[in-house]
Design brief:
By secondary structure, the protein is an alpha+beta fold. The chain has one domain. It has 6 helices and 6 strands; from the N terminus they run αββααβββαααβ. The strands form 3 sheets. Strands 1-2 form a two-stranded antiparallel ribbon. A two-stranded antiparallel sheet has the order 3-6. A two-stranded antiparallel sheet has the order 4-5. Strand 1 and strand 2 form a beta hairpin. Helix 5 crosses helix 6. The longest helix has 26 residues. The protein is globular, with a radius of gyration of 20 Å.
Length: about 150
């Protein structure tokens, strides 16, 4: 078999694999638009804090850009939920994490330094709980965007 034929066959195999990988990524992608609360799409994004925030449509990135502070808590939560950021410290105190002190907020398991911080978040509900853990102030204390 000639080198050209082998090269052509390898190119076809690579292209098929790449298409399958992209389809699988879209099938497993799960994020919530920080503007609308609807399921986000993998191809509707905006750069944010060294990562990407995903949106449900082409209109939401503009609304996000106009008032990023309004949507920051949900965008921060999305960075963590999509694996672009990781927790490094307690989001309330900035202290070392205690593996025994955790609470699930939305779809994200969050660690804390102590039972007092854990209890404060566990007692909060809805948007108050989300704001305690994912506000810009809490994000700065407890999370960092991972570089790819």
């Amino acid at each position: 078999m000639s080198i050209r034929k082998i090269s052509a066959m390898l190119s076809v195999v690579f292209a098929i694999g790449l298409v399958a990988y992209a389809a699988d990524e879209k099938a497993t992608f799960k994020a919530t638009c920080p503007v609308s609360g609807q399921p986000a799409l993998v191809d509707k994004t905006a750069d944010y804090k060294g990562g990407k925030v995903y949106f449900c449509c082409g209109n939401c990135p503009g609304a996000f850009a106009k008032d990023t502070a309004k949507f920051a808590t949900k965008a921060n939560q999305q960075l963590i939920a999509t694996g672009q950021a990781k927790q490094v410290k307690c989001p309330l105190s900035g202290g070392k994490l205690n593996p025994e002190a955790t609470v699930t907020v939305g779809d994200v398991k969050v660690g804390f330094c102590c039972n007092k911080c854990q209890g404060k978040v566990a007692d909060a509900k809805g948007d108050e709980q989300t704001a305690l853990v994912f506000s810009d102030e809490a994000f700065k204390k407890g999370f960092e965007v991972t570089k790819k």
